Every structure is written in C-alpha cells, then in structure tokens.
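Q: Got a minute? One more chain.
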Amino acid sequence: MNDDRRSGRQARIERSLRWLERYRPVVDDMQAFLSALEHLPPVDLLVPRGPQRRREVAALLEARGLSTRGFEWAPLHLRLEAEAPRGALPEVVFGLAFRQGVVSSLPCRVLDPQPGERILDLCAAPGGKTVMLASLAGDRARILAGDPSASRAGVLVQSLSRMGLASVITVQQDGNGFPAAAPFDAILLDAPCTGEGIFRVGRPRYEPSEERGLLRARGLQRRLISRAADLLAPGGRMVYSTCSYAPEENESVISDLLARRDDMRIEALPEALPGSPGLERWGEVSFHPDLVRARRCYPHQTGSWGFFLCLLRKDPDSGRYTSGSRRDDRPRTEPEGDAASANELRAALQPYGVDRDVLDAYHVIPRGKDLWILARSCPQGADVDIARLEIVAPGLRALRRTPRGPRLPNGLLRGLDGHLSDRVVEMEWEQALALLEEQERDAPPDTPTGQVALRAAGQIIGAGYQRGGRLHLELPKAWR
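A: Always. Here it is, folded:
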C-alpha cells in the first residue's frame, strides 16, 4: 500500500473512531469496546444440521490444526480460535457449514421459525439469515426472501443452493411496497443501515456517513417497518435488526412505529442472549419504555460485530392486515408444477436409488430449460399468493437439461442427502480434501461412468463425473 493510500485509510479510521465516541454514554465498557475495534472479527461458522453435526465439523477443523469453540447461546455456531487459512474452508465449500458471524444468528433464533409457517425475510441478501431460518424450520416453512437488486437476489439463490434448501421462494422485490402475498406468521426485517457495527470488518471498511447518512437510513427503515407491520398476521411476530449502534436507526424507528400503531408491542428476549438493554433515552429524546427489552450487542460482548435487535408481536385481535388487490380474479397459490415435470425428474433420480414417492413432498416446477423443486411447506389453504411477485427462483434448482443429457445440480444432491443409495462414491475426508485441491483423481474401483454423487464425512458434498477412469469434481467455481 503506497503512502497516500495508507494515510487516507488512517484518516478514515480516525474519523470513524471520532464518530463512534458519541456512544460513550451508553456503552457498558468503552475501553473494551475501543479495544475490540482494533482487531478484525474472528471467523464464525453456522453448522445448520444441529449440535451433533457441529461437533463433527469441529473435529474436522481441529484435525487440520484449526482449534474451535462453541457458544451456549448459539448452539449451531462455531468460532475458529486462530486466524483462518487463506481461501474458502473445505467445510464451507462442501456444504457442511456456512460462514456467518455469530451475532447475525440472533434475529433468526429469536424469530424461532416453525415448520408450516409463512415467513418473510424482507431484506434477505446475501442470504445467511435466510439459510438459518430455513434450516431452523427443517426446510419445511414457506419462506419468501426478497431483495430489490437482481444481482444480490442472485447471490441469495446461490447461498440457498449451497445448503440444498428447497423451502424458499426468492423474489426481486422492493420491501417498501412488498406485495401482500400472505398474512405472514413471522417476518425478519434486517434493515439496511449505515453499518456502524461492522467498523471492525476489514473490507469494505466502514466509513461514517454521520447525520446525513442517519437521516437517509432512518427514512427507509421507518417505511420498511411500517410495511412489515402491515403484512404481519394478527398474532404474528417480527424481528427488527440492524448492524448499527445509532439510536436513530434502532430505538427511534421502533418507538415511532409504536406511536403510530396500537396493535404492536415489544416482547421480551431470552435472558441468555448477550448484550445490553435497549435505550429509554438518547440525549433529550425519550423512547418507548419497553425498549429496554431490546438488545444492543457490542463487539467486546460477543467477539463479533455490533448489532441491535428487537422482537415485536402483533395483537391477535388486530384487524389491520393489508391484503392489497390482485391483478386479476384468479388466485395463484404457489408456483405451479406439473406431472410431466415430476416424472422427468423421477426418471433422472432413479439411477441414484431415490424412491419415487420422495418427490411427493415437493412441487416440481418447469422454468426455462430447468426444473425446480419447492417443498410443500404450508397447510392446505394457507399458501402464498404469487400473483404480484417477481420470482427469481421458485425453490431449489433440481435438473439442468444439457446437450449431454439431464444433469443434477450440486444443490439438489445435497438437498436429497439421505435419499441417495446408488451412484454414490464414498470418500474419506482426506480424499475429499485432495480432490478439492487437485480437481480430479483416479476414480475408485467400480465407480459408474458419468455423473455421480460424492459423500464424505457422512454427508453428500456435491457432484462428480467419471470418465476414462478419472473422477472430476463438479462444484461451481463460485463455491470454491
């Protein structure tokens, strides 16, 4: 780095630290807070398949000399105690884990998604929280995950595919005017913000936008939380969160909502969650007294970055749900599948030993040259209305038609883990690491020609292809 760039970077850091001094009156230990900001955050991993799988992934990491620790308040997360090696971790590449700061897991745990519920992730990209929501619900909730940017929605689709999740409809949608697709049982609003809390993240380095940025963010946040409250079913729950310390983006936004609506209230959070209570006052401004039930998380309290979250619930007797109007009189609930597509996918799965009735749990949806599967998640009559949604991905891509014949994507093979009995190449973990490094190797004896599924560490890790006695790894380049 040349001297001009170094001096410019240092000036930005000093300006940021001066801005963050405004929180000295409300941070419980300002010296510990400032000390935490001097270091990059550690690498945290979400291991979606439960505490036992978390222990197994920890053992794989520790066998390579990467010590880990867990969290009582985040039972699906691991933290690397030492600096991670360069490049993507094999455990992440192969879908055993997903990189996610542990503090970012709090909104999902608090929302507590359940199978069969209709859930909205209003500002979902890049997708870590959507992955966790779907995983916590056993991939059996109906989740709409939206982002107004086409490129960010594409990243979201990739995040879900990496983990083989089939219960999420990804949409390109502006949260300000999100269509009334359903009265949602639960909504996550991880709102766009100034990003003060990620100051310690190396790239992109946070740069304060000060009062001008706060004003712009606060207006958007108030519109989003108002729309989310409209879409919430009576009795439904909503988590509002940001990675900002600013009361203007947090307590002020929620206090404003409660002043305008008498059908929303703040719920208490689990006592085991780290952090400090929300604020009742900021300077001369008073907030709703129940905001002490919210949580402010500072880096020195979690080892992660800064965060704010609050759980709200709508009155069960509320008559306020914005249903909107349809473009036409035909109700459209769930993207439509067809029998021909289901039979085509069954035929493609037959060589892998997948029982025909496995697909009964999914809609099989044709879309362009591909087939997709969407978990039949909702109770009958409680599905979502897709009439005004701009759908990017109706679930999980399940089949690609290519000149060489139908191919099964990595995400599908991971998603159907447990149902595959044939054309599966069993590998030791060290063999999988070598294949990732070399991209091809001699195929084990009796490996079928063509596409196969690869299993290591007790889990399908993706697709391979055998030709000429060589086994090739077929993971997307973006995943490596």
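A: Confidence is low (pLDDT under 50) at residues 324-330.
Q: Perfect, thanks.
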